[in-house]
Amino acid sequence: MKEKILNNLRENVSVGISNNLGLKIVAVLLAVFLWWTVVNVDDPIQSKKFIVDVSVVNPEVIMQMGKSFQVEEDTKQVTITVEARRKVIEQLRFTNIVATADMREMQESTSTVPIRISIPGFEGQYVSAKAYPQNIQVNVENTQDKIFPITAVVKGNVRDGYVVAETAVSPQSVKISGPESIVGKISKVAAQVEVTGLAADRDIKTHLVYYDAADNEIPQTYLTSEIDEAGVDVTVKVWKTKVIDVVFDTSAIVAGEGYFFNGIEYEPQSIEIAANAEMLNTLEKLEIPAEALKRDGIIESEQIIVDMSQYLPRGVILVDKDATTAVVEVLMEQIGTKSFSIPVRSVRV
């Protein structure tokens, strides 16, 4: 009995599968097609472009040859076209994409290096990633070494009533290496220090900036020096300021015969100076000695230019370094006679 029932079931199943077999195959194919359509409509393959900087790796291959190189400006950045599912494209940022040029792959005949693209963390999730242009162009040239003095450049303003008296850089010079065409453009090497708000001496660690003859900053991408990472130390000395009177000794002005000296007029009558606290407390006026205005037999007014900076005590500076001179006007008058008529009746004995 059991065997008869099982045989009937097998016959029914066999008949069920064989009945309408073509329709069932079409149904399966239609289901697969619908699934493929839904996937591609809901999450289709898209493309997106990204602007990415190209990183040069293994540059020592060129440097070991005693050469330097520069990447042509129009190949330092490339356009990367990425094809991937929409969900992946929406997650991508230009920072996810890495474009590298390995100097070991440089074609000497064309001075080009192929660009390799990778998207770390998205391996296997994108269809393709292509760069345009596909290579970077490099200029290979001789390496030049040159020593430059380092100049401290102050930026910002110290606290009111104070002034930067002097700066000292350590080390005082630096040897720079790089392509001849770039090293040859360097006119000045500066150590920039920010002094905004300072009211006391300060040691400041800073980095170097390179300038050409027109004071344009030169990028340091292809340049090296022994203090690139360490930087330089700049000692900034800050002194307090004070306004004092300017006083002239006129004892050496001698009038000519028939004339007399009638005093002086001058500008400025006061100046702003800076010095250390001890010196500043003892200085109340700047006395210009008689030799600065020494004149013998002078018979007419005369203008004299005096350089006040040479009479400043050691350790004292002018706040305005352009205001070092005083203009002195020496006034002279002629001695004369005048006659008066007096009536006789006005004379009394």
Question: Please, could you describe this protein's structure?
Answer:
The strands form four sheets. Strands 1, 2, 3, 4, 5, 6, 7, 9, 10, 12 and 13 form an eleven-stranded mixed β-sheet that branches. Strands 8, 11, 14, 17, 18 and 21 form a six-stranded mixed β-sheet that branches. The chain has 349 residues and is of the alpha+beta class. The model has no long low-confidence stretch (mean pLDDT 86). It is 17% helix and 46% strand. The protein contains six helices and 22 strands.
* Beta-strand share of residues: over 45%
Q: How many DSSP H or I helices?
A: 6
Low-confidence stretches: none
* Count of extended strands: 22
Largest sheet: 11 strands, mixed
Mean pLDDT, rounded to whole units? 86
What structural category do the secondary elements indicate? alpha+beta
First-to-last CA distance: 187 Å
Over all CA atoms, what is the radius of gyration? 44 Å
Helix content: 10-25%
